[in-house]
Amino acid sequence: MSVDTSTDRARRVAIAACSAGLLLATAYTVLISFGPLQNAALLAGVPYAASWLLPALVGLVAVVAALPLLDAARRGWRAPRPARVVFGSAVAVMFAAAVVHGWPHGAVGVLLAALGPAALATGCQMLQELLRPADTTSGVAS
User: Fold this and answer.
1) What are the structural domain ranges in the chain?
2) What does each C-alpha distance from 22 to 34, 75, 108 come to in angstroms?
3) Alpha carbon 17 to chain centroid, angstroms
4) What is the DSSP string of 128-140?
5) What is the C-alpha to C-alpha distance for residues 73 and 19, in angstroms, rounded to an integer?
6) pTM for the complete prediction?
7) How far, CA to CA in Å, does 55 sit from each of 31, 33, 38, 97, 120?
8) Are 22 and 124 in contact (CB under 8 A)?
9) Who's near 133: CB < 8 A, 6+ residues apart?
10) What is the pLDDT of residues 70-97, one digit of tens each?
């Protein structure tokens, strides 16, 4: 029977908090980038009724690509290259859309809009670090 130490509890709380933050960053990023991505779909000739699918798809791709990254970290493996490329591409698309969204509001608007994609990428990286198996010999995560 495993003993639940305060370190284990603290680690689980940190993982839960980081996961919640990652979900919030994803939701914020999708909402901020929704309009510009929908407009891009309309400019590409996508019918209005289906134009909302592009922003939803980009957000879904980011979430789905993050899953193998987080699973690899949990197992102590190296993150698969395709997942890194797809996740980075989805975040880059949402970053560009967020900048377009904030552009009419000047530098402050761009900065505030860009916080979402930056938080998404940073949150995913932080959660990967938290999920990596701990090195019990040195007390440092591997």
Assistant:
1) 8-133
2) 18, 20, 23
3) 14
4) HHHHSPEETTTTE
5) 14
6) 0.80
7) 9, 7, 6, 10, 15
8) yes
9) 74, 75, 76, 141, 142
10) 999 989 999 999 999 999 999 999 999 9
